[in-house]
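// run 5 | inverse folding | seed 20
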């Protein structure tokens, strides 16, 4: 049935294309050849998307709107095949602040810009078993899609042009600029779905995840020649649950919650520009989002004396983790011409603040009088960036002018951890032998609290010009100086040769880097971590009081930790561009080598009963003075190699009878290989700090290939979008060394369909279905999911919520 659905969707797209082609009038090049001007990856003014020296995808606001989800990251992943955005669950804060992956690299290896300026990351550190474990990334969903005009995705290493983090590429979010007009949309939908219950052999029907988004924008004049664009969005989403029957309880019932968190958020953006005379413009923007999310931890059995007090929860309990996030950004800038130079100076501030809470829980060491809700502390990250960019064209006797660009960037970052209330982390006196802290999420202790900062300054030089009539070349070099780890220099060479007006080849070679984040250098927490252990021949999740320590702390150094160093990369790319009239094709091969990647180590566990001189006893002796029985820290030492291919084909048709068709076929092949992992030599027997499960998560947690087929059609007031996305199998590795705990998501195909009708000139009504045929990833085998709590893998590249039906009303004026 699954493959019939895939073939049906592909055949439908082909049939639409064939029908339109058969009826098409002679090609109208001036109407079908769309030249989109881009500013990402080049500092030459007026460069079109198909004329760049490196591949750039342009995703318009219209494209983002033509699907059920209003999440920016989800819509982007559905549009750009090299982008993946999984939907992890039961991963604490990562449930609501989910990371985006480009070309299989780490979420923190893609630089995000807003209007060309560096965007701040979140304060969250992804510590649990999800894609991006150990990383801190930008939260794309903190920017409402209604505030955007377009997104430019540079699929090439660009550290020499933009600095740290641009190893995989750059995502540049371009805010809407309008001095008149406006629009408003209301989108609502819910999941109408069913999936097989492997525990019972029966169908599980779910009707949940009701989501309503209200968004709008308005363009206003600032005087006679300036603009102010205001955008706002309200999102309310109920949680989803795909947990199965729990066979451990009587009567058997669903005890867990596995899916999207309950979420409510409000977002606001203002973008403005005002000419101030003599060719100068004053500009700026402000953005704010408040997000309240509630996700679940794992269910606690009523009979587990280490977790539950029967008089408080006679039927057990499901802890709920609250994540309250405030995200704010503000920028002011001035640009214009001075002595022949185009200058742009700006100051950008960004802050991300996350407060954690946990409710429907308890601290068993406090006994029956334990509180059932706790404030668990929080994280704060902020960033202040000053940037100055200058460019000018010089006639140096080449086939065209040489564009010379240079710039300076100064950045200050701070990171804070704030302690929670005492009961969230303390060990009570009623049952002092029990593990400490609130269950589900242990609060940050006063010993975890920190307030650290650093400075960084970078300078760059970027040259680009036509060396001959057919050959264009560019060279860039960037020098960075960080107050914590020292300096770095990156370089890039790019070239493009146009054989004809229709066909060109392009390529680049570059070096790059990613500075260790403050979060990776200084994050510390003490919590209860469940680690699979062999107990009496049965694999059982055993609780350990686990500390995550800075690598340069006393515990970190004792276990072999060292000061973190920057990651280094080498990027190689070679591609071809063909475009003629309504048809365009780009093919780009790439290789990305990353050395000294920063990762979170394995959890090193100690045992007081282990024999003297064994690893477990040595670890216990090292950790005992610090009150922990297990520890982990961030370290360098993983080397990776990625080889891949991006292909994007597009064909546009204008036909007087059949209408307008925009057909796109795009695909990504990405092979990721871990070549080296770190070990520790401070223990009697050296052990891997990045073992089998962590390695396989890097190599096989994102699809090796992904293909998207999309057709957009419009005629008069009618319109429709049909999209099929094919995903390669993804591995969810288990802890067993023999692979017996592994499972696969399977090769899957997702079909989305939307139909639209415009009433008059201003109102459009849309109905659609994301995941029309209700496809799910392959389930976790029952022997690996006895609780029924996690029937699907969080690594599934399209999630595990099933069919989503929605409607939307959009009004423009």
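// decoded
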């Amino acid at each position: 049935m699954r493959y019939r659905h895939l073939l049906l969707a592909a055949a439908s797209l082909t049939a639409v294309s064939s029908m339109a082609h058969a009826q098409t009038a002679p090609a109208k090049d001036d109407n079908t050849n769309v030249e989109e001007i881009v500013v990402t990856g080049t500092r030459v003014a007026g460069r079109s998307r198909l004329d760049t020296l490196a591949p750039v995808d342009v995703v318009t606001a219209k494209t983002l709107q033509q699907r059920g989800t209003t999440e920016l990251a989800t819509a982007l992943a559905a549009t750009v095949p090299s982008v993946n955005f999984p939907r992890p669950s039961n991963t604490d804060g990562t449930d609501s602040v989910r990371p985006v992956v480009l070309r299989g690299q780490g979420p923190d290896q893609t630089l995000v810009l807003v209007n060309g300026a560096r965007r701040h990351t979140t304060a969250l550190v992804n510590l649990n078993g999800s894609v991006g474990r150990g990383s801190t990334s930008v939260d794309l969903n903190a920017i409402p899609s209604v505030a955007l005009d377009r997104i430019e995705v540079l699929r090439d290493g660009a550290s020499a042009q933009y600095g740290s983090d641009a190893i995989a590429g750059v995502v540049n979010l371009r805010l809407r600029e309008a001095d008149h007009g406006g629009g408003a949309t209301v989108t609502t939908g819910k999941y109408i779905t069913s999936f097989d219950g492997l525990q019972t052999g029966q169908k599980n029907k779910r009707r949940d995840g009701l989501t309503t988004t209200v968004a709008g924008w308005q363009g206003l004049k600032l005087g006679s020649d300036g603009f102010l664009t205001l955008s706002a969005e309200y999102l309310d989403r109920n949680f989803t649950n795909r947990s199965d029957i729990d066979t451990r309880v009587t009567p058997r019932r669903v005890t867990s919650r596995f899916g999207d968190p309950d979420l409510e958020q409000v977002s606001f953006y203002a973008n403005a520009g005002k000419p101030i005379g003599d060719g100068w413009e004053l500009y700026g923007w402000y953005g704010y989002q408040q997000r309240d999310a509630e996700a679940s931890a794992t269910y606690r059995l009523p009979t587990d004396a280490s977790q539950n007090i029967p008089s408080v929860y006679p039927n057990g309990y499901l802890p709920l983790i609250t994540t309250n996030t405030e995200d704010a950004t503000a920028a002011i800038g001035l640009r214009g011409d001075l002595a022949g130079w185009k200058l742009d100076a700006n100051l950008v501030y960004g802050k991300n603040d996350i407060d954690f809470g946990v409710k429907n829980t308890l601290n068993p060491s406090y006994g029956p009088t334990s509180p059932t809700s706790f404030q668990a502390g929080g994280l704060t990250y902020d960033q202040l960036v000053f940037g100055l960019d200058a460019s000018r064209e010089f006639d140096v006797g080449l086939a065209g002018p040489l564009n010379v660009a240079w710039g300076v960037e100064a950045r200050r970052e701070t990171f804070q951890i704030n302690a929670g209330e005492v009961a969230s982390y303390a060990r009570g006196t009623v049952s002092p032998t029990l593990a400490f802290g609130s269950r589900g999420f242990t609060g940050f202790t006063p010993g975890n609290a920190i307030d650290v900062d650093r400075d960084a300054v970078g300078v760059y030089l970027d040259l680009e010009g036509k060396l001959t009539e057919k050959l264009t070349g560019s060279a860039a070099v960037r020098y960075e100086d960080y107050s914590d780890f020292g300096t770095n220099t990156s370089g890039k060479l790019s070239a493009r040769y146009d054989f004809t007006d229709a066909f060109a080849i392009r390529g680049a070679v570059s070096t790059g880097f990613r500075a260790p984040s403050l979060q990776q250098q200084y994050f510390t927490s003490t919590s209860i971590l469940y680690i699979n252990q062999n107990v009496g021949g049965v694999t059982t999740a055993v609780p350990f009081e686990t500390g995550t320590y800075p690598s340069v702390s006393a515990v970190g150094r004792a276990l072999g930790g060292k000061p973190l160093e920057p990651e280094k990369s080498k990027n190689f790319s070679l591609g071809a561009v063909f475009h003629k009239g309504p048809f365009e094709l780009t093919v780009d091969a790439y290789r990305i080598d990353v050395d000294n990647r920063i990762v979170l180590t394995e959890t090193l566990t100690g045992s007081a009963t282990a024999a003297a001189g064994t690893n477990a006893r040595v670890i216990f002796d090292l950790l005992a003075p610090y009150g922990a029985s297990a520890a982990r820290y961030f370290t360098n030492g993983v080397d990776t190699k990625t080889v891949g291919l991006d292909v994007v084909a597009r064909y546009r048709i204008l036909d007087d009878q059949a209408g307008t068709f925009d057909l796109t076929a795009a695909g990504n092949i990405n092979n990721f290989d871990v070549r080296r992992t770190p070990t520790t030599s401070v223990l009697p027997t050296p052990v891997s700090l990045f073992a089998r499960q962590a390695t396989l998560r890097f190599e096989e947690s994102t699809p090796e290939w992904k293909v998207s087929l999309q057709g957009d059609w419009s005629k008069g007031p009618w319109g429709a979008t049909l999209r099929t996305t094919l995903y390669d199998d993804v591995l969810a590795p288990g802890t067993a060394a023999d692979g017996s705990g592994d499972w696969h998501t399977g090769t899957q195909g997702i079909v989305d369909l939307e139909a639209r009708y415009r009433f008059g000139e201003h109102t459009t009504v849309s109905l659609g279905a994301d995941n029309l045929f209700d496809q799910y990833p392959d389930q976790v085998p029952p022997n690996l999911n006895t609780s029924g709590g996690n029937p699907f893998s969080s690594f599934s590249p399209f999630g595990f919520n099933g069919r989503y039906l929605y409607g939307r009303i959009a009004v423009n004026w």
